[in-house]
């Protein structure tokens, strides 16, 4: 999944490349004063990226979890270990949606932390919790993008998808950005069980 690509025109930072780059900018993380725009060769919309990172950080603090950025891409991908996805629509000076895709273990950890109750299996509380987490992250992004060319005036009610047997078609001209985060989970055996993605697919409109 994480192919080691060094050609900058691919607009993709894989896990290994990101680590190498971060060493040159004092290890970018969500608690530092560095921004993604400071990473040389990374061609992304820094306004959207930094708004997303900050919103995810704030949400995970509410879930009593720590995380770090491990990948950013402008190429539409679907993480193979995705089990549950939260989806929410946006409208204003831009239109589109925000999604958060995660494995079962991350969903359980997030919702357990947010609700301060322990969950071991997917149930209706987890599904509702993922919808709430999606709403929190999208609301944070909406706030951060206020008074910019990407101002969001309205967000929809979140939807939650179970499973990974689906595909999303993206229109030409969309500003696509997917950021991968890894949560701290000492009991997890594989990185696939610790990584989740937050994706924005936005296009500017003449309205709003």
How are the SSEs placed, and which strands pair?
Elements: E1 12-13, H1 15-24, H2 46-62, E2 67-73, E3 84-92, E4 94-102, H3 104-115, H4 124-144, E5 152-155, E6 159-162, E7 175-183, E8 195-204
Antiparallel strand pairs: 1-2, 2-7, 3-4, 3-5, 3-6, 4-8, 7-8
Question: Main traits of this protein?
Answer:
Chemotaxis protein chec; alpha+beta; single chain; 8-stranded antiparallel sheet; 208 residues
Question: How many distinct helices?
Answer: 4
Low-pLDDT stretches = 1-34
Helix content: 25-40%
- Determine the N-to-C terminus distance: 38 Å
The CATH superfamily is known as: CheC-like
What gross morphology would you assign?
globular
CATH architecture: 3-Layer(aba) Sandwich
The third-level CATH topology is Chemotaxis protein chec
Q: SSE order in H/E notation?
A: EHHEEEHHEEEE
Strand share of the residues?
25-35%
Number of strands: 8
What structural class is derived from the secondary structure elements?
Answer: alpha+beta
Round the Cα radius of gyration to an integer and report it: 16 Å
């Amino acid at each position: 999944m994480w192919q080691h690509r060094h050609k900058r025109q691919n607009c993709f930072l894989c896990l290994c490349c990101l680590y190498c780059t971060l060493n040159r900018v004092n290890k970018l993380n969500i608690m530092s004063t560095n921004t993604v725009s400071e990473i040389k060769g990374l061609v992304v919309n820094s306004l959207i990226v930094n708004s997303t990172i900050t919103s995810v950080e704030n949400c995970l603090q509410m879930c009593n979890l720590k995380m770090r950025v491990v990948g950013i891409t402008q190429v539409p991908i679907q993480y193979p270990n995705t089990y549950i996805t939260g989806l929410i629509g946006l409208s204003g000076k831009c239109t589109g949606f925000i999604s958060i895709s995660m494995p079962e273990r991350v969903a359980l950890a997030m919702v357990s932390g947010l609700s301060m109750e322990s969950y071991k299996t997917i149930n209706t509380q987890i599904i509702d919790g993922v919808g709430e987490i999606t709403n929190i992250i999208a609301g944070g992004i909406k706030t951060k993008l206020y008074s910019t060319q990407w101002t969001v005036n309205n967000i929809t009610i979140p939807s939650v998808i179970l499973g990974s047997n689906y595909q999303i078609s993206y229109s030409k001209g969309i500003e696509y950005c997917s950021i991968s985060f890894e949560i701290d989970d000492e009991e997890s055996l594989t990185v696939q069980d610790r990584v989740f993605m937050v994706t924005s697919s936005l296009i500017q409109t003449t309205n709003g």
